[in-house]
Amino acid sequence: MVGRERELRSRRPGGGLALAGGAVCVCLVVAGCSAQGAAVQGADGSDPVAVLHRAADRLVAARSAKTRTAMQMASGGTRVTIRGEGVYDFEERLGQLKVRLPQDPAGASEHRPITELLAPGALFMKNRGAGVPDDKWVRVETASLSDGNLVTGGATDPFAAAEVLRGTRTAEFVERTELAGTEVRHYRGTADLARAARGASQGNKKALAAAAEGFATAEVPFDAYLDDEGRIRKVRHRFSFSNGRAGGTGIVDVASTTLLYDFGAAVRVRLPEERDIYAGRIAAEPADAAVDGKN
To answer: Strand, helix or coil at 76?
Structure first.
């Protein structure tokens, strides 16, 4: 798929950092699913666990969407937020995000936005810094990351975010509400990453299994907002992992939010050729000060 361009056009109108263990990417720059468990029936009488297990499949049926992401990290009294925006093709499992890093204390941005390409089993980053030439991409195998790229890129892959819900163990219907002008059903629950990995697509299976082993706990609390077609409009996961850095503060808490809208939007993602991928050693950036609370 390298070097090939995929374009997806809508056939119907739409609706509306690795961090653990000190191996840091974006963070360094800023320094079978069974319906077990408790379930409270939804507004339509359906089982919330079963509804959430199917949410990723509903996105594939929707084909594509625009997305906005936010990843908030908290450790030792320091809190930073990384934001992203882009598009995602759920059929081809391809996406492109522009990730913006936190501003410095003076309010200015210290880094250019990072362009990220998401593909099955891989994350590509441009404007990565750390000694990487401006015209080169960094490729990371997501299965090699202890967080499965749920955190490493500073944004959770939208389809991986959906597939975490395949591991839902307990869930309850909270309420019907409105999100950006669309009526949605709010569910709250807990997913198990190991179970999610077993039920995930081939591209996410190894990555989610790595996350199940790498996080402080495989249990992931979440809030999910689904429209009446069962498509995710918003999902917020809460991850925890050990910082693992000398002088670090121990556990880092991450809240990752993914918003999806404009379903069926055109998506064009061109993966880099091999000659455009950086093969050198990535220089060490200053420690992830934002997470360790050194800024």
So the answer is: coil
**CB 203, CB 219: distance < 8 Å:** no
Query: What is the helix (H) or strand (E) element at residue 55, kind and residue range?
Result: helix 55-62
180 C-beta neighbours (distance < 10 Å), count = 12
Predicted TM-score (pTM) of the model is 0.81
Residue 59's SS3 state is helix
| Cβ contact 70:102 at 8 Å | no
Contacts of 107 (CB under 8 A, 6+ apart): none
List of E strands, 109-214: 114-119, 122-126, 137-141, 168-179, 182-192
Give the Cα separation of 48 and 54 in Å (integer).
Answer: 10
- Residuewise pLDDT in 10s, the chain (295 residues): 444 444 444 334 444 333 333 334 554 344 333 334 444 565 566 899 999 999 999 999 999 999 999 999 987 778 899 999 999 999 999 999 999 988 665 555 567 899 999 999 999 999 877 678 888 999 999 999 999 999 989 999 999 999 999 999 999 999 999 999 999 999 999 999 999 999 999 999 999 999 999 999 999 999 999 999 999 999 999 999 876 554 555 788 999 999 999 999 999 999 999 999 998 776 544 334 334 443 3
